[in-house]
Amino acid sequence: MKEISAFFVYILAVISFTVTIGIARKRSMWGWILAYWIVLTIKNYVDWWGVSW
């Protein structure tokens, strides 16, 4: 499970970087922000599921 969680952390970092660049270029980043929260929710569920088993 740690590998899966680490993969989600990597994806979150990529999305965060994308949002940062987009905001610096004054673009609307709401789609990416929504994607971030979805990925974060899935990651937290995977982490919780790994601990509860």
List the keywords.
2 helices; 87% helix; single chain; 0% strand; mainly alpha; 53 residues
Q: Give the helices and strands as they follow along the chain.
A: HH
Uncertain runs: none
Strand content: under 5%
Radius of gyration: 13 Å
Instruction: Specify the number of helices.
Output: 2
For the record, give the distance between the C-alpha atoms at the N and C termini, rounded to a whole number. 11 Å
Question: Helical proportion?
Answer: over 70%
Number of strands: 0
Largest sheet: none
Account of the 3D structure:
The chain has 53 residues and is mainly alpha-helical. It has two helices and no strands. It has helices at 2-24, 30-52. The radius of gyration is 13 Å and the shape is elongated.
Layout of secondary structure:
Layout: H1 2-24, H2 30-52
Helix pairs in contact: 1-2
Give a quick precis of the structure.
The protein has helices at residues 2-24, 30-52. It is an all-alpha fold.
